[in-house]
């Protein structure tokens, strides 16, 4: 949730960049996720991001079959 996280993803050259656009830097992402601010602890926010990434991977695998 820091613009520096999004910039680092962009600089990595990753084709898929999933992150939070709040705090700036959403333009560096390919997939912008809205955090669940009802559970604001940083660990909870990052777990939600990982869950979204897993669902994208699963959909991609199913589509390729």
What descriptive keywords fit this protein?
two-stranded parallel ribbon, 2 helices, about 60 residues, mainly alpha, 2 strands
Mean pLDDT: 81
Shape: flat
> Spans with pLDDT under 50 lasting ≥5 residues?
none
What is the H/E string? HEEH
Number of DSSP helices?
A: 2
> In which order are the strands of the major sheet placed?
1-2
Derived from helix and strand composition plus strand pairing, the structural class reads: mainly alpha
Output the radius of gyration: 12 Å
Beta fraction of the residues?
A: 5-15%
- What does the largest sheet look like? 2 strands, parallel
How many β-strand runs? 2
Oligomerization state: single chain
Distance between the termini: 34 Å
Q: Work out the helicity level.
A: 40-55%
């Amino acid at each position: 949730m820091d613009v520096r996280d999004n910039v680092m993803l962009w600089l990595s050259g990753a084709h898929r960049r999933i992150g939070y656009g709040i705090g700036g830097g959403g333009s560096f992402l390919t997939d912008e996720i809205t955090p669940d601010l009802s559970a604001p602890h940083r660990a909870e926010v990052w777990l939600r991001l990982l869950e979204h990434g897993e669902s994208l991977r699963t959909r991609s695998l199913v589509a390729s079959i």
